[in-house]
């Protein structure tokens, strides 16, 4: 290395290191074992016990006990829902009064940002932008860690295909390939340069496993699924999280084929800790150990504790099954102490890695908290990620972006001035706090146009109510405007845990409000805000411009204004198919052809079809428009046939054929035409997100290798089989622009 470069390098290193606290010593098995040797059985069981602080509860609160006394006795290994440098210090000080002074781990649901709130995860997934998603998790971790936290219960990496399920908002969508990349990006973001840095928190891949397939989309419901479906679709993001070094896993409320996930040793021992060699620890979901009684799987908590620990569940979140029964179970010879030791070791190792034995208070620095939270850079990141999460569903006659010469804008709808809904569900930081810092759509537009444009507003109606009393005022406001921007959708509390619905049409009389405004003849832009795919067929058919804006976080209004006025050209693409009606659910792009596929849309008799609806979704996976247009041309395959260990290059030209600079998410799908186990009509195998100037062309290429061609055969072995493959490159799963085929030969 050149001398000057070396000097600069050392200087940089030095300044970076200055920003960090002293690195903790690496956890060695020796240290862990030495500590374990000093522990009584009672203290070991204490490490496996997690209580909630009393601020937030997502389930029935465990019976009140003097938790601080329990901590002092060494009966608690971790707390959730205690946050803030001051409070965590206070509780950690109590842990330091215990005999062995083993520090507590503080965990919280930091799902999409902390103080600065980012878009809900399903929205962020629509960005298809791994850097942005990683940055969002990185920012959240930096803030959370400055607030005394060591652990986030995120990412949720469940795959789901049922928008009735309220928790779709927390995940990445329907596709295992994309879901795996996003899982990895989020784990990397949360854990940063590694545990032990005071800006990193432990990530937690949840909910292991198959929670997203709850029957009928009803939360907590049973899951019944083939091993093939489990391995092909539901497990890949969990495996990706392990590969990315995720520190912890959370199991799940659901049963899988008759066995509750919490007591499921196939999932936790065989797959996770066995086949995948996961070295971190597994926490139960909230009271899920105790819930095995209601499942009808065990008789009482004594049995529940035995089954859970034996199956590989290390930490008990709020069931009190371990703390009440494990010592007895060991003494009764029902649980070998080596199982307890293994669980304790896994947890202690993380405490060492976090540096808590070097300094249990290293995350509890109020000054740092003050300096880190709500920084301008974090807000900037949140605004950028929010803009990237918006999906342009329709834009007839280029109504968007709005011309800067517009003079009168009417802003109408029940969510137009809402700040509170912008944060979406699971924004624990904001519980009980004033939400004045959140930017509504109205405020975002006001910030953008200043006093140059006159803004008028009418609410029109409530989100859920049936009154049309506000319509007349809204119509009058619209009539005086050059353009109308409408904000309709769900309220933020309509998605999230325990928010399953049978009717996912946009609620109340909102669609009628849109009809009334559209009838004025004014150009109308509708912004749909929700945490799940919703149904809004009239709007989709009649309104010229539609943006799906989800819940975008604290900078929501600013990001929406950036997109409305063309300062950011939208590039989001849906990661979950939007149904036409609830009766179509589940609707997803990677379906099987069946023996009677629909070939012509109108010819459906004795075909695998509905008589009252097309099979296709309203908006397909991978779909989303831009203010510009892209042309795909010149597809070339490097070979017509490849051997198993060879690669094939598919190259093509992408041209920005429109007037605006823009980003496209180019998607590669493959279909294995004939196989010993039938394959879906299309599977996403790769994508490229690229920005092009107007008129610019680029040659792009995808590399196809064995991994992309493999599947689980009849014996559940991952393999390839010779035969023909169809290759499809396009702008959405239903908008394939380039097609070709190739042969895999022996
Ligand atoms: C949820 C988890 C969450 C936990 C702790 C449960 O109800 O299913 O995802 O991490 O509560 O708040």
Q: What's the layout of helices and strands?
A:
Elements: H1 3-18, H2 29-38, H3 41-47, E1 49-52, H4 67-72, E2 78-80, H5 85-95, E3 105-108, H6 121-125, H7 130-146, E4 151-152, H8 176-191, E5 204-208, H9 227-234, H10 236-243, E6 248-251, E7 255-256, E8 259-260, H11 265-275, E9 281-283, H12 301-311, E10 316-317, H13 321-331, H14 337-353, H15 366-372, H16 376-389, E11 391-395, E12 408-412, H17 441-449, E13 454-458, H18 471-479, E14 483-489, H19 510-518, E15 524-529, H20 537-542, E16 545-548, H21 556-564, E17 630-637, E18 641-643, E19 648-656, E20 662-672, E21 683-692, E22 697-704, H22 706-709, E23 711-712, E24 718-719, E25 723-732, E26 735-745
Parallel strand pairs: 1-2, 1-10, 2-3, 3-4, 5-6, 6-9, 12-13, 12-14, 14-15, 15-16, 18-26
Antiparallel strand pairs: 7-8, 11-16, 17-19, 19-22, 20-21, 20-25, 23-24, 25-26
Helix pairs in contact: 2-14, 3-13, 3-14, 7-8, 7-15, 7-16, 8-10, 12-13, 16-21, 17-21
The structure holds beta-D-glucopyranose.
The site of beta-D-glucopyranose has 9 residues, from loops.
Structure, described:
- The structure is a single chain.
- This protein is an alpha/beta fold and 746 residues long.
- It is built from 22 helices and 26 strands.
- Strand 15, helix 20 and strand 16 form a beta-alpha-beta unit.
- The longest helix has 17 residues.
- The N terminus is likely disordered.
- The chain binds beta-D-glucopyranose (BGC).
- The site of beta-D-glucopyranose (BGC) has 9 residues, from loops.
């Amino acid at each position: 290395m050149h001398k000057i470069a070396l000097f600069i390098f050392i200087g940089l290193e030095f300044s970076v290191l200055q920003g960090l606290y002293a690195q903790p010593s690496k956890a060695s098995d020796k240290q862990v074992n030495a500590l374990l040797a000093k522990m009584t059985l009672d203290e070991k069981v204490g490490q496996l016990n997690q209580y909630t602080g009393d601020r937030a509860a997502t389930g029935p609160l465990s019976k009140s006990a003097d938790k601080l006394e329990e901590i002092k006795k060494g009966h608690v290994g971790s707390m959730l829902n205690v946050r803030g440098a001051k409070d965590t210090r206070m509780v950690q000080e109590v842990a330091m009064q215990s005999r062995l002074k083993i520090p507590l781990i503080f965990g919280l649901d930091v799902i999409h940002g902390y103080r600065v709130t980012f878009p809900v995860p399903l929205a962020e997934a629509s960005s298809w932008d791994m850097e942005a998603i990683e940055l969002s998790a990185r920012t959240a971790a930096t803030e959370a860690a400055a607030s005394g936290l060591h652990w986030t219960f995120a990412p949720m990496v469940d795959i789901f295909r049922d928008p009735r399920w309220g928790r779709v908002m927390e995940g990445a969508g329907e596709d295992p390939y994309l879901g795996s990349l996003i899982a990895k990006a989020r784990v990397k973001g949360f854990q940063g340069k590694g545990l032990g840095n005071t800006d990193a928190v432990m990530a937690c891949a949840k909910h292991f496993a198959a929670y997203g397939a709850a029957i009928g989309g009803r939360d907590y419901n049973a899951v019944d699924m083939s091993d093939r479906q489990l391995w092909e679709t539901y497990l890949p993001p969990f495996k990706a999280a392990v590969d990315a070094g995720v520190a912890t896993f959370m199991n799940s409320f659901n049963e899988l084929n008759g066995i509750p996930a919490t007591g499921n040793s196939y999932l936790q021992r065989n797959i996770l800790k066995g086949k995948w060699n996961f070295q971190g620890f597994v926490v139960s979901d909230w009271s899920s150990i105790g819930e095995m009684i209601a499942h009808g799987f065990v008789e009482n908590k004594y049995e529940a504790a035995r089954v859970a620990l034996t199956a590989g569940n290390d930490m008990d979140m709020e069931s009190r099954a371990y703390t009440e029964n494990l010592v007895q179970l060991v003494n009764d010879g029902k649980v070998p102490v080596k199982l307890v030791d293994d669980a304790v070791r896994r947890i202690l190792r993380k405490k060492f890695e976090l540096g808590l034995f070097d300094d249990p208070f290293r995350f509890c620095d109020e000054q740092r908290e003050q300096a880190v939270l709500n920084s301008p850079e974090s807000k900037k990141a949140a605004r950028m990620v929010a803009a990237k999460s918006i999906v342009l569903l329709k834009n007839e006659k280029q109504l968007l972006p709005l011309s800067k010469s517009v003079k009168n804008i009417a802003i109408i709808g029940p969510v137009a001035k809402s700040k509170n809904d912008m944060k979406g569900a699971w924004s624990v930081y904001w519980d009980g706090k004033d939400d004045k810092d959140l930017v509504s759509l109205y405020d975002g537009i006001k910030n953008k146009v200043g006093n140059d444009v006159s803004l008028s507003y009418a609410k029109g109606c409530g989100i859920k109510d049936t009154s049309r009393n506000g319509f007349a005022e809204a119509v009058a406001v619209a009539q005086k405007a050059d353009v109308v921007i409408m904000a309709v959708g769900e309220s933020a509390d309509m998605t999230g845990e325990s928010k399953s619905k049978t009717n996912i049409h946009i609620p109340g009389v909102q669609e009628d409000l849109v009809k009334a405004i559209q009838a004025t003849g004014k150009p109308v832009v509708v912004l749909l805000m929700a945490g799940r795919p919703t149904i809004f067929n009239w709007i989709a058919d009649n309104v010229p411009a539609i943006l799906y804006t989800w819940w975008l976080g604290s900078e929501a209004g600013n990001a929406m204004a950036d997109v409305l006025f063309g300062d950011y050209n939208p590039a989001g693409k849906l990661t979950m198919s939007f149904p036409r009606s609830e009766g179509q659910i589940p609707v997803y792009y990677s379906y099987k052809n069946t023996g009677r596929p629909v070939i012509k849309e109108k010819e459906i008799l004795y075909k695998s079809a509905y008589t009252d609806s097309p099979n296709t979704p309203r908006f397909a996976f991978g779909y989303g428009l831009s203010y510009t247009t892209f042309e795909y041309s010149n597809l070339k395959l490097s070979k017509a046939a490849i051997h198993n260990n060879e690669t094939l290059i598919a190259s093509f030209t992408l041209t920005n054929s429109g007037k605006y600079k823009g980003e496209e998410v180019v998607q590669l799908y493959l279909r294995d035409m004939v196989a010993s186990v039938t394959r879906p009509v299309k599977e996403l195998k790769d994508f490229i997100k690229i920005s092009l100037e107007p008129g610019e062309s680029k040659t792009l290429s995808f590399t196809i290798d064995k991994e992309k061609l493999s599947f689980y055969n009849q014996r559940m072995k991952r393999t390839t089989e010779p035969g023909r493959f169809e290759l499809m490159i396009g702008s959405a799963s239903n908008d394939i622009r380039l097609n070709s085929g190739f042969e895999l030969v022996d």
